[in-house]
Amino acid sequence: MKIKISHLSKSYDGTPVLNDLNLELDERQPWCLMSPSGSGKTTLLRLLLGLEQPDHGEICFLENETILKQPPRFSAVFQENRLCEAFSPTENLVLGAQKGISRQELRRELSLLLPEDCLDRPVYTFSGGMKRRVAICRAMTAPSQIVVMDEPFTGLDADMRKNVIRYVLDRLEGRMLVAATHQREEVELLGGRVVELPPLH
Fold first, then answer.
1. CA 127 – CA 113 distance, rounded (Å)
2. Are 159 and 129 within 8 A, CB to CB?
3. d(CA 77, CA 89)
4. 14: burial class by Cβ within 10 Å (0-12, 13-18, 19+)?
5. Where is the ABC transporter domain (predicted)?
């Protein structure tokens, strides 16, 4: 899988966020977007996901140098966790999980990131870091070819961050990962390649 971004531009209310961006990403390693706040990282991820449309330019997805007629399947971790707060973590995963994965298997996945006694509690009782782990687990158990993450490890302490990153890498299984981060340590733990979006001024 390869993503080819050509002459991509996007502005909001006349203010440019991305301007004539050209970029190629492949699945050989995780890709980490590292640029100052306001430089367009989140906008680029939303464009990849098809949640926004560019003003100019295009994004092509290629398999063996052939452009795919249909966009690939994505899973995502947004800056907001976007969980069903009244549901348990297991129920949140069931909503988006790959067909054929049993509820028991999903509980096993969650138990790698959460204490056992939390798996049946409603998510609204969780701390921010625990909700983050549910959102990450949901993305990794969903059917996808590309995983997109926007500041995914925010709110996790240093030891938990290492554990969660190890979990993400173990569960990639050949999928492409594109993540926005401000932390150089996260790039190193992911073994990622840095993409710095060019400044607009």
1. 13
2. no
3. 15
4. exposed
5. 3-200
